[in-house]
Amino acid sequence: MEGTILISALAGIATWYAWRKHDGTFEKGLRLSYARLFETLPRMALALLAAGFIGRLVPTEPVAKLIGPESGFLGIFIAGAVGGFIPSGPMVSFPVLVVMVQAGAGFPQTCAFVTGWSTLALHRVLIYEIALMGWQFSVVRLTSSLVLPFLCGVLAQIIIWIYPFRWPPF
Fold first, then answer.
1. Average of per-residue pLDDT across 63-81
2. Calpha distance 108→84 (Å, rounded)
């Protein structure tokens, strides 16, 4: 909740500042915001609708067993690895994440999943990275990034031991 208030306050300050400049920045920002809203809204609606249906189809017991809060370090490792294999952008991967949380995924495992999806992204490596940067670059980058999902999950576990909070958030 505090993060939402902070981001809203920063957006309000930026909006006020753009309005006070009187150089067209405010109007340009409004046009860009509306364009982004109407571009993203249908995608989000479809993604959340799909997440609702997928959530009913995914069995909760295997998910909770593999990447639930009690799965420990193995669950963190599995979630990070699965995240690296999700071939999509945020409009698909985050609804999948919501389904996993509803099925019983733990907080550290969820953090590892998102980190694996964003840093490993094997589909992007195969399609873009190797073709544009070469296989040597890709091997070094992937090798140096492999530890990040696991490290993120472990740090998330330490943080919730220190500062416990309600999970899942919905």
1. 92
2. 16
pTM assigned to the model? 0.75
Whether residue 167 lies inside any domain: the answer is no
Q: Which domain holds residue 124?
A: 59-162
Angle between helices 107-119 and 90-102 (to 10 degrees): 160
Assess whether 51 and 66 both reside in one domain: no
pLDDT in tens, 142-153: 999 999 999 999
Same domain assignment for residues 14 and 65: no
Cα angle 144, 145, 147; round to 5 = 95
Amino acid at site 62? P
Q: Kindly state whether residue 18 falls inside one of the protein's structural domains.
A: yes
Whether 26 and 80 map to the same domain: the answer is: no
HEC per residue, 119-159: HCCHHHHHHHHHHHHCHHHHHHHHHHHCHHHHHHHHHHHHH
